[in-house]
Specification:
alpha/beta, Rossmann fold, ten-stranded mixed beta sheet, six-stranded parallel beta sheet, binds ligand NPW, binds potassium ion
């Protein structure tokens, strides 16, 4: 699904009106969808305060509040303007709610999450936040900073320009674009202000599919990760061969292989140089076959694996290991994911010519800078596009928002995940998951973007237990993330 400008969004709405759909019906669907997605994000009800401006963005928040109340949430409203100044639709939605806006700053009473619905401004925002809207945005920021409130933006964080993503907008923890994601969300400022992004599809609006940048979500990629047929056997689930871990960095191997298993691999084999430390063998999932060898690279490439994962924690392997890796890479046609130290070796040897269409590379910004120093200073989207024009591989560039690119295809933007996942080991888990998807036969950009979506969503599920999600938390929640993907397809 493409990202759209504010004007393109208005045209989509106009087309729906011309087909007889009313603005009120769209708002009702938007508010209901927002509430549904919010309920999914929290394990139990709490307090929800709707911050409303005078436009339709506030109407979305009021409809969502009504549905949250039905689901057991305590609700209240804070209004930037007296009701007489509101538009006709939000006024109607206030009447449906039958409560009056609060005069004072709300306090979180009772248990559960303290949720603020940012319905001050949507695609109607122009320029810097002004007057009472700016004051309400400030109030939300204080409650978020000092009182543990979580801000959920209706459509866009208020004040974010829908097209350029510029503006000192509200900082949200979660943004729920209505119908289609707006371009500004993918901009560098948008990424910093939107938090995680959960699309609210509207059945009366088509999902446009024509831009160079795509929003990656289950609703727009329904063919991926289909449920298994009853006759499915472990051969269908893929054999993943993993070259990970080296002296002092063996934990990466544990994480990567566990993630591969929890993503559903039929067989996972770990190839390591020398002996695997006995104390870590006990941490290894018993399902993993560990193959220590003086020449693990050769063994991994010669084994009948459907896909290979290479690089997590291999930085302290021998020179022979690294040299033979480059040699085998040149001739093997299997799907291969190259991560971390494998990428550093390629960069160090200046062998980017080895990167081919059967490779998925997953650098973080530091590793990417070593691979492509000439792209320093470019935006992530521009840098991805330029890199894959030169190299045939699939590129997954990690960052506050992960991007996936391949020559000749639109760049994909992954909306899941959060800052609490910024810790060592998450990349090792991601490469294990992508390795499994590749071993199961997924096309390389699908495997990479689905891997990023699933790991991000698993980290979101872990938020029920606190703001930090370790790689082990991500792995634990992978099954739930797979369920979420399947349930959101339409
Ligand atoms: N259309 C539809 O069918 C559907 C729309 N939907 C929803 O509606 C949203 C769009 O609604 P909208 O067009 O009413 O505009 P909206 O963003 O609420 O605000 C406009 C108001 O903001 C004000 N204002 C502007 N800039 C400002 C600033 N910097 N600082 C302060 N104030 C500022 C401006 O006031 P003015 O400057 O004109 O006095 C104006 O009154 C859309 O994002 C989606 O959420 C969904 O329900 C689906 C159906
Ligand atoms: K908003």
């Amino acid at each position: 699904m493409s990202f759209v400008t504010g004007a393109a969004m208005r045209s989509l709405e106009e087309a729906a009106f011309a087909r007889g759909v009313s603005a009120e019906a769209l708002m009702d669907l938007a508010g209901e969808g927002i509430a549904e997605r919010l309920i999914e994000q929290f394990s139990r009800p709490g307090s929800a305060i709707g911050y409303v401006g005078k436009g339709n963005n506030g109407g979305d928040a009021l409809v969502a509040l009504r549905h949250l109340r039905e689901a057991g949430w305590r609700i209240a409203i804070r209004a930037a303007f007296p009701e007489e100044e509101w538009g006709e639709l939000p006024r109607r939605k206030l009447r449906d709610l039958a409560i009056a806006p609060e005069i004072d700053v709300p306090r979180h009473k009772g248990s559960g999450p303290f949720l603020l619905l940012d319905g001050l401004l949507g695609i109607g925002a122009k320029g810097a936040l002004r007057g009472p809207v700016a004051a309400m945005a400030e109030e939300m920021a204080t409650l978020r900073q000092n009182h543990g409130a979580v801000v959920a933006a209706m459509d866009l964080p208020s004040g974010l320009d829908a097209d350029t993503g510029s503006g000192e907008a509200v900082i949200a923890d979660l943004t729920l674009p209505v119908g289609v994601a707006k371009m500004g969300i993918a901009s560098p400022n948008g990424v910093l202000r939107c938090g995680r992004v959960v699309l609210v599809p509207l059945k009366d609006l088509p999902l446009p599919d024509d831009s160079f940048l795509k929003f990656f979500c289950p609703e727009a990629f329904p063919g991926l990760l289909e449920p298994r047929a009853h006759g499915f056997h472990k051969g269908d689930a893929g054999r993943a061969g993993i070259l990970a871990g080296s002296p002092g960095m063996t934990g990466a191997a544990v994480i990567c292989t566990s993630a591969a298993l929890h993503a559903g691999a039929g067989l996972v084999t770990l190839h390591v140089e020398g002996d695997f430390p006995p104390h870590l063998l006990s941490a290894m999932p018993p399902e993993v076959m560990v193959r220590p060898s003086p020449d693990p690279v050769k063994e991994a490439f010669e084994a009948r694996h459907d896909a290979l994962v290479i690089g997590p924690g291999t930085g302290h392997a021998s020179q022979h290991y690294h040299a033979s890796l480059l040699e085998f890479l040149a001739s093997d046609e299997r799907p291969i994911i190259l991560d971390a130290d494998a990428l550093n070796q390629i960069a160090k040897a200046g062998r980017l010519d080895l990167l081919k269409s059967n490779h998925v590379i997953t650098p973080h910004p530091g590793e990417f800078a070593r691979l492509a120093p000439e792209l320093a200073g470019e935006s992530a989207v521009t840098a991805c596009g330029a890199f894959v024009q030169k190299h045939g591989c699939t590129l997954l560039l990690k960052g506050a928002r992960t991007l996936v690119a391949k020559s000749g295809q639109a760049i994909r933007f992954n909306p899941t995940g959060h800052a609490g996942m910024a810790s060592g080991g998450q990349g090792d888990a991601l490469s294990g998951v992508i390795g499994t998807l590749l071993a199961q036969g997924a096309e390389s950009t699908d495997a990479a973007s689905l891997g990023a979506w699933l790991c991000g969503r698993a980290g979101e599920r872990s938020l029920a237990n606190g703001p930090i999600a370790t790689a082990s938390d991500t792995i634990r929640h992978l099954g739930g993330a797979i369920d979420d993907w399947r349930q959101r397809r339409r």
